[in-house]
Amino acid sequence: MRRPVSKWALLALLFTALLAADQWTKYLAVERLTVVFERGGDETLAERVRGFYTYRHLEPLSTEPYYVWRPVWRMNYVENPGAAWGLFRGHSQFFRNAFFTLVSVAAVAFILHYYRKLRQDQRYLQVALGLVLAGAVGNFVDRLARRYVIDFIEWYWWNRPDIRWPTFNVADSLIVVGVAMLVLHPGSRREAARAPARRDAAAERV
Asked: Which member of 42, 142, 172, 200 is catalytic?
């Protein structure tokens, strides 16, 4: 009889695969939405991967956006030194780096602390936390390497790119989906429903 995959093995698998997907899609954004590799003469994959982590501030070398579905969806290279919706763009680089490093380390510590308490059979929550962890680390890797995050996915109103959702990336998507799963987790409502009963039972014992 095969033993079920342990929760830590599942987390390692999810984290590795999703972090690799996030970094690979950002590499593709640099490769296909900028001309930096052509300018740098980087031809081999090793040269381009090295350039991906060492070249900085590539927006002047970006190409025209690539339209996946012209009415609503395009790929556009954007560097975001702040948070979602451009928050903290106006602060100094030192403040942003210190703030985002602190937030990222605290988030990873909280996720691992919460994950450690999960039972082996709580797969839904394990997957949700795995998504959030991979997304948080994915953007943190960007900040360590470049001091900004690479965004490239743009959704906008029908044929109106000027009315659009803030540009985002795969790591942002993982965080949003993971947090949504945690919020919508049916177990949280059951726990909330059980809480008054537990309080009543405790009061009766007193």
From this structure: 172
Q: What's the pTM value of the predicted model, to 2 decimals?
A: 0.85
> Which residues contact residue 91 at a Cβ distance below 8 angstroms, ignoring those fewer than 6 apart?
82, 99
200 is catalytic: no
**List of E strands, 65-189:** 66-69, 73-80, 149-157, 160-164
Q: Tell me how far apart the alpha carbons of residues 160 and 162 are, in angstroms, rounded to a whole number.
A: 5
Residue found by looking up tokens 């997304």 in the block:
135
* Catalytic residue list contains 172: yes
The structure tokens listed for 163 are 């009315």
Ordered by start, the domain boundaries in the chain are 7-204
Contact 164, 72 (CB under 8 A): no
Paired strand residues for 75: 66, 153
- pLDDT tens digits, residue range 127-143? 999 999 999 999 999 99
